Amino acid sequence: MAVVCLLSVAALPAGSSGAGPAGSTRIRVLQMNLCNSGMAGCYTGRSVTEASTVIRTEKPGLVALNEVCEGDVDALERTMADVHTGGTVVAAFKAARNRRTGGPYRCLNGQAYGVGLLAHIPAPYGGHTVHSGIYPMQDATDPEERAWLCVDATGALYACTTHLAYTSPVLALAQCAYLLGTAIPLVRLRDPHQPAVLSGDLNLRHGGSPDVRSCVPSDYLHIHDGAVQQLMATGGFTVHSSRSVGMGGTTDHASFLVTLTADRRRSRSH
């Protein structure tokens, strides 16, 4: 099992990160809320174009996308493929559910609306599996039922994202607890030693009431953008750097870029 763990961390999506100090690997994680449903007041119709520019500039290895249409993920997947000339870029999307119809919640343009993931996996590509779900706890007055999404990149990492309820911090905390306490542990059953990263707009704050830290496992790394965007990761990671990336007024959220360092030697014991 120690050999498997070593290979898992060594194969983390590098983006422009690449090798760090001896015995470590870096991964750049970009968290984005693009507000692109067409219905919210923060919609401009320009956020996907700006997101493509940011991806080209920052060259992340992992991108978490919130408040996007399904076609947005396809467009940004092409940008990721252009940015990374080697390895494999994988993309996944999970639609929120419409409480009234039982089908996908939809953007104004008719496309399914929800959350997405983009991940660059350096060679050798070992395949990937997509896991997703709708939270069992929802706001009965909100037609949008919130979703979670994970990609299991075999031999590399588990990458997850979500966009939690905005109508009630207590409900958002319950969804967070379900994701970190039930959904992600089930996803990780295939290989509990493979590292995991969760990035999303949780509509919860560090030091808020309730406090987002109430749902973070004690052995997870946790960092935030000073507002509602959060990143959490399993043991073996440290934060090399983090900063907000402006989106030129195309959405109401700056993007959040975190560079993680994975210590391969430490990860073998997790």
The count of strands amounts to 14
What is the straight-line distance between the termini? 10 Å
Question: In percent, how much strand structure appears in the residues?
Answer: 25-35%
Order of helices and strands: HEHEHEEEEEEEHEEEEEH
Largest beta sheet: strand ordering? 3-5-2-1-14-13
Quaternary arrangement of the chains shown?
Answer: single chain
Main sheet makeup: 6 strands, mixed
Could you describe the 3D structure shown?
The protein has 270 residues and is α+β, with helices and mostly antiparallel strands. 21% of the residues lie in helices and 34% in strands. It is built from 5 helices and 14 strands. The chain has helices spanning 2-10, 47-58, 70-83, 169-187, 264-267; strands at residues 24-33, 62-69, 88-95, 97-98, 113-121, 128-134, 144-145, 147-153, 157-162, 196-201, 221-224, 229-233, 237-245, 255-263. Strand 8 and strand 9 (157-162) form a beta hairpin. Helix 2 (47-58) runs parallel beside helix 3. The longest helix has 19 residues, at 169-187. The chain starts with a helix and ends with a helix.
